[in-house]
Amino acid sequence: MRILVTGGTGFIGAHSVAALLRAGHEVRMLVRNPAAVAPALRPLGVDAAEVGTSAGDVTDRDAVRRAVAGCDSVLHAAGVYSFDSRDVAAMRRVNAPGTEVVLGAARAAGLDPIVHVSTFGALLPGPDAGSGAPLSTAAPVGTARDAYLRTKADAERIARRHQDDGAPVVITYPPAVLGPHDDRLGDQVTRLRNALRGLMPMWPYGGFPIGDVRDTAALHAGLMRPGLGARRYFGPGRYVSTRDYVRTLREVTGRTLPTVFLPARAMLPIGALVGVLQRAVPVHLPAEHGAVYLCATARPYDAAATDALLGTGARPLYVTMADTVAWLHATGRLGRRLAGRAARISETV
Fold it and tell me: Dihedrals φ, ψ of 104, to 5°?
């Protein structure tokens, strides 16, 4: 199949491009800057000459229409993922409007499947919040007040509207993803790095689903089969409490990482205050309201359909964290002392 990928220079997008090529598909990337393709794909063993490119923004209807022409399917992975209050305007400009343009153009061109990359956070807090029951893909669209989650929920409504109309839209809900080769240092890899740098001595109680970016990429490659209609899948991963997150990071690095855990609800006002201060501070502040909100509201989800599709479960958290820390050290983003014993782990990809 010839597959158009939006957001292909991002963390999930680039890994998904590599997975699609390994599966034998032809890939075309819609990118604002074609020069960004080679640096994004080279670390994954992909030569930029292996993919086609189409210049344009996901909010530009003409550019998207040109990009989908001649394609069989689309993976819409473009979006602004951030809990930084300075990025609110960009999230509002791109996340929902871009989804409207890309899915509309793909549907008009008869593409099948049309894969929309959402997030598990678009379903929060979910029905029966606090019950501990696993979250289902049938859950209603979430009502979170955080800017990022709200814009992704808006995009989710657009994707579901197309599903309700009978379009072959497939929605994926990746967890918080870690793994190697995140050259832009996205939210989750930055959070792990900050924890090892001693910038996160306080964590909220609670937890959130975590997965490996390579497993999410494998899911996207596995979905490229036409004629199966509208579907929804959680990304491979598992719910991890913040205590288990820190404990696993200690095991991976051999470091003590002194940490204080506080009630998540009590930390929400702190996160909101940091969001206000962040607008006036040039450096990134690690205490983010959206991240605390996730810890307070997230719960396990049912990924049985995903495991059945892929024929395997998600990678163990230890392996994902070890590979992430080893990559951070190998690329000079984390010193040997901070990486601990993970500095001796060879990359697995």
Answer: -65, -45
> Domain boundaries in the chain?
2-184+210-237+300-314
> pLDDT truncated to tens, each residue of the chain (349 aa)?
999 999 999 999 999 999 999 999 999 999 999 999 999 999 999 999 999 999 999 999 999 999 999 999 999 999 999 888 888 899 999 999 999 999 999 999 999 999 999 999 999 987 776 666 789 999 999 998 888 999 999 999 999 999 999 999 999 999 999 999 999 999 999 999 999 999 989 899 999 999 999 999 999 999 999 999 999 999 999 999 999 999 999 999 999 999 999 898 878 777 677 667 777 777 776 767 778 888 888 989 989 999 999 998 899 999 999 999 999 999 999 999 999 999 987 444 3
Q: What is the CA radius of gyration of the chain?
A: 19
Into which CATH architecture does domain 2-184+210-237+300-314 fall? 3-Layer(aba) Sandwich (3.40)
CA–CA dist 149, 267 (Å, integer)? 18
Structure tokens at 78: 């473009």
Within 10 A of 92 (CB to CB), how many other CB atoms are there? 15
Neighbours of 241 (CB within 10 A): 15
As a dihedral over the C-alpha atoms of residue 210, residue 212, residue 215, residue 216, rounded to 10 degrees, the angle is: 60
Q: Residue for token digits 């230890």?
A: 318
Q: Which residues are catalytic?
A: 148
